Amino acid sequence: TFKAEEVLRAAIQLPKQTGALEQQGTVVTTGEAYTALADPDQKLILACGVPTANVTVQWSETNGGNFGGALDLKNTNVSSLGDAQPVLVMSPRSLKPGRVYAFNCNARDTRGVSGATSFHVRTNAPPAGGSCIVTPSQGVALETEFTLSCGGQLDDQGDVLEYAFGVSSAFSVLMPRGSKNKHAFKLDTSQIPAGMPNATVELRSRVFDTMGVYGEFVSYVSLSRPVITDTATYASNLMSSSLADAQAKGDQNQIFSTLSNLATLTGNAITPSGTGRRTTSVTDVERSLLTMYKATQNKALPEKDESGVALQAKTLTGLTKRAQEHDTAYLQDAIDM
Fold first, then answer.
1. Residue among 129, 170, 118 at smallest CA distance from 151
2. Which of 335, 329, 299, 294 is nearest to 317 (CA)?
3. Which of 21, 65, 285, 302 is a Cys-bridge partner for 269, taking CB atoms 3.0 to 4.6 Å apart?
């Protein structure tokens, strides 16, 4: 299996030819083939090791015509160094996924003595089949718990699969890549355009193989704004229900999601209006938010260290506003530093 920027090498033995041969990698003599698995989204590098003096090299590919057209290795958009160098460099996405390509390297010296070797390269395909669904299909921001779940996907190499869930084509992360094929979450009001009572939110589920290639599934939910008559009471209720549930589960992702929702509700109290600049002092809201977080970790605010409180509070309120862009470990390290 290829890794990014890895070079697959094979040496050609020219009969009665003297001189140093390529010593690295697997030696393949005339008529034999080396088979490998490659990621079509990455650069593919094949090296044909030959004596360096008075030898010409010519690459060809003979199987691409069976599934949509032979590769033009002279085209530098396809093969960046062309087809007459000892190293063949295939550009990312120049190969189709789930195919087998036959690359041939032919070498000839000035006496007309020739040799050849070949590489059979199978390109990896993303996991396919199955489905990813969201339930329920509609709900209220900050209140409704949605669940994305995937099942039935198969990988062409039989790899163990991993999953990630996000929002929209930009893939604002709801759950970073991991082994769990299901994730429960709540959406905040930032998903609804200003002045609108509701919106259709696009959700994305990605299923990865071990090479990092993924298949993507799209789902939609209808999201409405909550009816809030008293922000403080609503926020308190949100904390007592969602935060307590997250803490009981030990679910750090849900803890930060809940704090993020609270930060959204109390955003005006966190960022002073008018100037658009942040103050250096800690507001009551920021201190309260930090205290809530510390409690979930069985920790207290730093004693006699207002600068430490301020730094951690500002970090927490800043990060929770965009919690989906950071993994949980990073958030915890940044706040507890």
1. 129
2. 335
3. 285
Phi-psi region for residue 61, left (φ > 0), alpha (ψ -120 to 50) or beta? beta
Residue for token digits 């033995």? 13
Contact 134, 147 (CB under 8 A): yes
Q: What is the pLDDT of residues 120-131, one digit of tens each?
A: 888 888 999 999
* Residue 76 neighbours by CB distance under 10 Å: 13
Structure tokens at 239: 């904390």
Q: What is the value of pTM for the model shown?
A: 0.62
237 neighbors 243 (Cβ within 8 angstroms): no
Query: CB–CB of 109/14 below 8 Å?
Result: yes
- Contacts with 182 (C-beta within 8 Å, 6 or more apart), sequence order: 147, 148, 149, 150
- Count of Cβ atoms closer than 10 Å to residue 272 Cβ: 12
Q: Which two tokens stand for residue 318?
A: 């800043």
Beta-carbon neighbour count of residue 259 at 10 Å?
26
Task: Quickly tell me which residue has 């600049």 as its tokens.
Answer: 277
Q: What is the pLDDT of residues 286-336, one digit of tens each?
A: 777 777 777 777 777 776 677 777 777 767 766 665 555 556 666 666 666
Q: Is 241 helix (H, G, I), strand (E, B) or coil?
A: helix
Alpha-helical regions (H) of 171-243: 231-238
CA distance 202 to 28: 50
